[in-house]
Amino acid sequence: MGMHEYFKSLSDLEKIYRCPGKFKFEEHSVAAHSFKVTKIAQFLGTVEEYNGQEVDWKALYEKALNHDYSEIFIGDIKTPVKYADPDLRERLANVEESMTKHFIEEEIPEEFQAIYHDRLKEGKDETLEGKILSVADKVDLLYESFGEIQKGNPEDLFTQIYQESLSTILNFKELASVQYFLAEILPDLLSGEFTNQTALERISQRILKEHDIEQTFAMDS
Amino acid sequence: MGMHEYFKSLSDLEKIYRCPGKFKFEEHSVAAHSFKVTKIAQFLGTVEEYNGQEVDWKALYEKALNHDYSEIFIGDIKTPVKYADPDLRERLANVEESMTKHFIEEEIPEEFQAIYHDRLKEGKDETLEGKILSVADKVDLLYESFGEIQKGNPEDLFTQIYQESLSTILNFKELASVQYFLAEILPDLLSGEFTNQTALERISQRILKEHDIEQTFAMDS
Amino acid sequence: MGMHEYFKSLSDLEKIYRCPGKFKFEEHSVAAHSFKVTKIAQFLGTVEEYNGQEVDWKALYEKALNHDYSEIFIGDIKTPVKYADPDLRERLANVEESMTKHFIEEEIPEEFQAIYHDRLKEGKDETLEGKILSVADKVDLLYESFGEIQKGNPEDLFTQIYQESLSTILNFKELASVQYFLAEILPDLLSGEFTNQTALERISQRILKEHDIEQTFAMDS
Amino acid sequence: MGMHEYFKSLSDLEKIYRCPGKFKFEEHSVAAHSFKVTKIAQFLGTVEEYNGQEVDWKALYEKALNHDYSEIFIGDIKTPVKYADPDLRERLANVEESMTKHFIEEEIPEEFQAIYHDRLKEGKDETLEGKILSVADKVDLLYESFGEIQKGNPEDLFTQIYQESLSTILNFKELASVQYFLAEILPDLLSGEFTNQTALERISQRILKEHDIEQTFAMDS
Amino acid sequence: MGMHEYFKSLSDLEKIYRCPGKFKFEEHSVAAHSFKVTKIAQFLGTVEEYNGQEVDWKALYEKALNHDYSEIFIGDIKTPVKYADPDLRERLANVEESMTKHFIEEEIPEEFQAIYHDRLKEGKDETLEGKILSVADKVDLLYESFGEIQKGNPEDLFTQIYQESLSTILNFKELASVQYFLAEILPDLLSGEFTNQTALERISQRILKEHDIEQTFAMDS
Amino acid sequence: MGMHEYFKSLSDLEKIYRCPGKFKFEEHSVAAHSFKVTKIAQFLGTVEEYNGQEVDWKALYEKALNHDYSEIFIGDIKTPVKYADPDLRERLANVEESMTKHFIEEEIPEEFQAIYHDRLKEGKDETLEGKILSVADKVDLLYESFGEIQKGNPEDLFTQIYQESLSTILNFKELASVQYFLAEILPDLLSGEFTNQTALERISQRILKEHDIEQTFAMDS
Questions:
Q1: E139: which chain F residues are within 8 Å (Cβ-Cβ)?
Q2: Nearest residue, CB atoms, F152 vs list C23, C152, C156
Q3: Where in this chain does the record put each HD/PDEase domain (chains A, B, C, D, E, F) (predicted)?
Q4: pLDDT tens per residue, range D2-13
Q5: To the nearest whole angstrom, how far is the Cα of F76 from the nearest Cα of chain A?
Q6: Which class in CATH covers the domain with range D3-210?
Q7: Where are the alpha helices (DSSP H) in chain F?
Q8: How far is the C-alpha of F139 from the C-alpha of F178, rounded, in Å?
């Protein structure tokens, strides 16, 4: 009980691996994922600011850093489970939320409970920072799935994750940072030589088109 | 779709590790656990038969082999989560059950669906075979937790799991196979020299006493 | 000494990896392999029964579950060692058998020794259950080697294992369960997109032809 | 070249393990460490604010998040190398700094270079945020070394790291957050039962005394 | 065919782990073991030379480097298998030898076959270099087993290996290098603080006494 | 203090992995690499001798065995760091050398210090043995990078390492052993079927041409 339990739980996040039960060439812990998402959110926020938006940095860092903390309770089970319908997913999310609430009341000293209830709640809201978190989370997932596809992982699942990530990112296409990502980063990602390179480029083009975005990848020319 | 999906899913069970997010000296996959539980159930059934009981071997093997198959959907999250109440656990169990049902309808050829609905349902019922499964499952869990305690794992969790496993086994103390386990196997388990040996022996004695069982461990004399 | 030694040895099977000394993308323990073989045998038996055969389930489960137990003594060294002739292989098998016998006499309580001598003897005999075990063992090996080929493992060894597995399965082509495997499962296995897909399909066709089996794979059309 | 290189490099930090070449029960990547340090800094900042200090959260998060980024160049080689004198250490630090500078000029787009020169420079300065970083970095190192000692790691190195970490933390004993750590967290850390518990308590007492701090650990009473 | 096969096989030795099927805190590959044995033999040879013996360095290095090469065929299965009698062991050794012979004839170019038949034959003969190899092999095994005991490995096996190693070393107690090891190295090994330290010291004293060696360990005083 | 520290440090080399921070399908420890380099040097020396050269075997084995020992101090950080110029590399080499010197003075008994100063100094000098070491070191690196390319590693780094290794080997093209390698071993390496086979063959041809070497690979015909 107390903050020691909380500090100890951080290390548990090093031992929870994303997308369990599937063959992967590289494993990613929830701790490492949270780090990368925060670093990516930092860059996306920088682009927003460069384009004249005002960024609430404190809020952005809090959201990014804590967005998967509740996975210490039931692990990473939200990655596309083929056999779960939206209702099942929501029930799982509720279970997770109840446990987080319970944890705070048991372990966090009273004077800090309100702060942590706020910090550990779902961060993907309608604020600019909530949107940047949504994008950053999917950019890292896109890199993770890309890493598997690029190495020749035969599981179709990773192509699905790649598509789903890109689609979600495109839901925020009005953001300057998303436009920067599409124009400057995605083409570099896709321009190397690797197994399935053409297939992935085609998929990306199609998804971009569905979102009415014109993008010619560097290597097409 | 089809049995190929089912065969492939067996390999996923090799990649789901029990009790995720906790430091362990040894990892145990759900596939390996299922193997050990079936082998242990085989021995317990043998003892029952030796003591005059009739064992439905087909039922026993089916129950043991399949008892954790549904973990391919949401992994192993039923190990004592400190912050989950019975209601939460039940909701998780329901989610798992729904996914199993969905999976069978999608992947198993129609002519075998009834058989697999039966095979993949909860096996720990009131039959002798259901009871043996309950015991075998906990004997393996007891060995797993013992393996951690014996190597000096400082997580208190494993002592809790040891206790809970032994308690559950003792709920079936009327079984000849449980009596054999208590008289012939548990003392050997506890008789080696290892860190916390005395503490574990004391805990075991206390739990046995709570279940009105007189057992003097070999090394006490 | 006693069943505790036997229970402990089950965990050793979790630490013996198949086909040691060769690069693999995925490792498979003997424990996990035994689990998968038993599950596959369960399905094959179901197909036999569906086709009017009588299956001795107790015998089938015993054979499948225990068929590699003796590897606790000298590990998995029977996978095609290029430099061993049949005589060497037989000598190794004899060594293993002697150790199993020795183990039973030392560790298994007298009242159960006969049962375990029977359980741990070679199970691949001329009974229906012995044949199903032979097939199930090779189906899992075929999936293991396929998993490597599909991920781009450059070791030629895995293509050899794939071929050898399929050939052995075809030695039992009179079984309904083998026919089911060839007609319903193998085509799905080969129909995905992966490195060397065409090569593997060609190899499979050739082996089928050698066994006088006409099979057109789904994707050919 | 471009931000894609930078994003990719984040994943390299998942593959650099701290304190290489020494036996450890648990490995910690630089990515995971950075995550934990940022979370710890978040809590320490919260305590400072609760005690009336003004915290520049943007600065604090930037410092914590980026403090070990430059390890992508020469890895984690600053953990106490017994055979390096201060001069050697400084030369290594210079090498690292030169490479970071070189990296930014090559990979980061010009419009963001100034920002990243600032973000990736040494963050442990004389500001409140710089001090919190120094403390948070050592709190995580103290937990890491404690985790090894507690599990019975025979390498003396981890006791040295524990001592060095605690000493450095105490250099900031005027901070409210350090006082909170000493009064509320350290006693919980030391109060469990584990190998060398008494020895570690004694070492901690001695170091506290050297810094003129009176602290009676919970379990002494 | 050809030296490429031989070069490739070196990498297989990186994937064969010593003492398979037993829980270990640290794994050691045959490649790493061969390296350490050669380095230890180098030192032991240096001590011999310092004491006036003439060392055939070419022979010593060849013996040490190649002494476990034949494990590419059937792996490391000679570590004390409890259930194997001397006859079984000898049969296994013969199998290994036959395969080595077969390998050389198939893969090594004719002009070098004689050299490699010589290099890959059993090196533990009656020459000074053969004796140094016997000692160096056991010194590394003693360090490996010591590493497990010191970390609290509960498997009794490692104490047996420690004893067997020390006994074998003492069979060569007339060597100056063995005397140096006993007087200058073993006491340092045993002088640290670790679980079972006293037990191990006592065992070592007893074995030394059985070989009529008087040795007082540093920490006794 | 004493040789015990030195013996212990050998095991640290088992825990230092080459080329840290990059995705690899296979990890290689410095200990295993040193073993392989020594075995390769043994063969190259054999070819030299067969071609009439006199080989100082003692010197060759010492050089090969010890050439990376100093990596126990700052690990393997010399693999092409893109952002380091030659000056930085030299400064790192100096740091390493200073630590080695310091280590010998602290740990090696005085009577053996001169020998170990000699053994642990840079071995790649102008002698035949120094040249063989340079070649053997790169042959193993070439195999390591080839192993990654062949399995489809998308990191461009490994193609660079392959090229750099082959170029360095060709700097010694006057050696009979290098000519043997080019004529008899490299073609076998490149003749298998694998991802990027053609690309790698083309690269190899180009590098050979740059060094004025005519070599037609087996499979070209």
A1: 7
A2: C152
A3: 26-151
A4: 899 999 999 999
A5: 22
A6: mainly alpha
A7: 3-12, 30-50, 57-66, 71-74, 86-107, 110-119, 128-150, 157-170, 176-180, 186-191, 197-210
A8: 10
